[in-house]
Write a structure and sequence with these properties.
The chain has one domain: 434 Repressor (Amino-terminal Domain). The protein is mainly α. The chain is globular. Helix 2 packs across helix 3.
């Protein structure tokens, strides 16, 4: 599970950076605390599907772009 959370977090961080957004920008768009978003990006917090959808919408990406856990 830890490996999945780390990959999910890395995917979120990558998508955020592609959008040119800071953690604070994403926090404002999602209503989440930026420190919690940082923990999500580090794979330290398990998030539910609703929060994941909110993050995907804020980043303007498809959910599967964030949830993809294929090895690169």
């Amino acid at each position: 599970m830890e490996k999945i959370l780390k990959k999910l977090g890395a995917n979120i961080k990558s998508a955020r950076k592609k959008q040119g957004m800071t953690l604070l920008d994403l926090a404002v768009k999602t209503g989440f605390d930026d420190s919690n978003l940082a923990k999500i990006e580090k794979g330290q917090i398990d998030i539910g599907i609703v929060k994941l959808v909110q993050i995907a919408m804020a980043l303007n990406v498809e959910l599967n772009e964030l949830y993809s856990i294929k090895e690169s």
